[in-house]
Structure formats: C-alpha cells, structure tokens
Amino acid sequence: MTSPAYKRVLLKLSGEALMGEDAYGINRATIERMVADVSEVAKLGIEVAIVIGGGNIFRGVAPGAQGMDRATADYMGMLATVMNALALQDKLETLGVDTRVQSAVTINQVCEPFIRRRAMRHLEKGRVVILAAGTGNPYFTTDTAAGLRAMELEANVLLKATRVDGVYTADPEKDANATKFDTISFSDVLKHRYSVMDMTAFTLCQENKMPIIIFNMNKPGSLIRLAEGQTVGTLVS
Fold first, then answer.
1. Residue ranges of the domains in the chain?
2. CA 5/CA 8 separation, integer angstroms
3. Structure confidence at residue 218 (pLDDT)
4. Exposed site from 85, 97, 143, 229, fewest CB < 10 Å?
5. Please, where are the H alpha helices in the chain?
6. Which of 172, 202, 197 lies closest to 187 in space, CA to CA?
7. Which CATH architecture has domain 8-236?
8. How far apart are CA 166 and CA 232, in angstroms?
9. In terms of pTM, does the model score above 0.90?
C-alpha cells in the first residue's frame, strides 16, 4: 500500500463543485465521484475534514434575495452548506465511511455543533468530519472558514478544490498562454495579485504558515494522487 503523504488534511469544496453541469443543486454523478475519491483517501489512513460551501443551493434563490439584509442572506447561505454537508455524509456512508457533520450554527436535530476537541477526536478515530455553516458569522466566506478550521484542527495542509488545476499567470480559461506554477510563495501571490482565495482567508493562512494546494478535483483521481504525495495543482507556501 502507498504511504500517505499527510496525516491530516482539510479539504475545501465549493457548493458550486457539486452542481456538475447543472444550473444549481446537487448533481448525483458529480457528488458520487467526489465522495469516492474522499473514501479512497480515508482508506489510506489520512484523517480528512471537509469544509463545504453552499453556492449551488443559494444560487438558486439568489434572485429573490436581492435587496435583502446582508447578514440575513449570509445566514441563508450557511443553511445551504448544512444541506450540502448532509448530502456528502449520506453518500460517504453508503460507501462505508464513518462520518460526522458539525455545524457552526446549532441545529441539534441533524448535526453536532462544532466543538474543536470533539472534531479532533472524530478525526483520530478515522471518521471524516464535514464542517458546515462556515464560521457561523455573516460577512465571512467559507474560504475563511476553511483556513480557520485547518488551523484549529492542526491539519498538515489545506486542499482547495477549484475549476482549474492550480495557480496561473493569467486566467487559463481566457488566456491560452497562461503558465501554471507548481509552487509559489504567499508573497508572490500577493505581489502579482493572483487569485487563490479571498484575502481574509489567504492572510490567515499566510500568517499561520498553513500551506495551501490549489487543484482541480474534477479531474478523476487528483485528490488521491495528492494524498500519495504526487505533484498536483499548485502548492502555495
């Protein structure tokens, strides 16, 4: 068996990643492919925590939220992440992966509250911990929640799944000549204003020396190759 490259990882998944080719919601084939990769990583003995976004659900109701109070809209987004977390839990457990959902907003009927020591104990027991509701505060993104939880749970690395397979000199979807970095420093990202994650989250990781790997989880097997220590995406450190 391949030796895992990390003891504990924090995987950041956007809600949009669950849509697949759909306009909003959860695409069944997409979520099944993603949880299969997570399952394989867990079988390597790596402790996995997941922070999930909610854009796939909140995007569907966004037109009705125009003009709404920002804090109220953000709380709606937090509830969307709980729905996604429960969907991930259901799919993972059909594969025999023991999971726990913890929410930064208390919803005792469906999930545990986020308690750091409890979450770490779940991870030590080999359970995948799915973290919902962001930080529990409006005005903060789920990227910021991912950085915060990565530090709190003492993860070795923050794995940010995106639509592109790393950091480029320009948007690869618009510029065919864009060059990809295998590794890049936090300071160079700031200097050249490359898009990695929102500035609050990025600064939090930089100040606490939390490495970030930007990769495309839509490429089958990318997460597993990362877990095995292969060069995938871009390492920001």
1. 8-236
2. 9
3. 87
4. 229
5. 28-43, 55-65, 70-94, 116-124, 142-152, 186-192, 199-207, 222-227
6. 202
7. 3-Layer(aba) Sandwich (3.40)
8. 8
9. yes
